[in-house]
Amino acid sequence: MADIISIPRPALHQEVATRLRQRIVEGLIAPGSKLNERELAEQLNVSRTPLREAIRALAAEGLVELLPNRGAVATQLSAQDVADTFEVIAGLEGQSGELAAQRITDTELAEIRALHYEMLAAFTRRDLSTYYRLNAQIHTRINAAARNPVLTRTWATVNARLQALRFRSNFDEAKWQRAVDEHERMVALLAARDGDGLRRLLVQHLEHKRDAVLELMKSGSTAVGARA
After folding, report:
1. 49, 137: one domain
2. Greatest alpha-carbon span in the chain
3. Is 207 within 8 Å of 60 (Cβ atoms)?
4. Last residue of a domain, which of 74, 100, 115?
5. Taking the CB of the first residue and of the last residue of the chain, which one, N or C, has fewer CB atoms within 10 A?
6. Are 74 and 32 in contact (CB under 8 A)?
7. Which residues fall within 8 angstroms of residue 189, CB to CB, at 6 or more apart?
């Protein structure tokens, strides 16, 4: 369990949302579980007001559902929800990659390459939490380099629902290694300004993640679990 940390007053609910998001993404709050406000307020050392604001923010992202008579629960996707959502995000990421390869600056490429090397170091340590944070930043930077605000907003909305699932897609060592190899190729294709190649790779990358998540759900070896 994470240490109890006193959070500064400025932008308090944003900070609480960040900590709650991490708990949900990393499975410390399992899909379908009710968010216990009293326990969370004690763990985060905050009052319930900023906590409730944070919960509403995560509900807007799709990580939390606000249910009548149940309160807030961590979102639980069915197998069909997963397949449908990954189908959409694969197309969005493919388009982002194609545009980014055409529009990315040398500075942006250097920043992505630096994040990639940090991510490789986290993989070597098998530090999944840090790896995922850096991985997410790389995908966000690629999307931003596409320079299409409508695409960016749409991608961010859909991707928010999948954060926990993308994290869990690396639970299998072989699949995690494959994802790392794919990221190596992403950086190379960006550097080569190969938009078509990067689009195809990103679609494949997301399809692999979808398959990994669906396999985990089918085996019951993760808390992603489908609804009845």
Report:
1. no
2. 54
3. no
4. 74
5. C
6. yes
7. 97, 101, 197, 198, 201
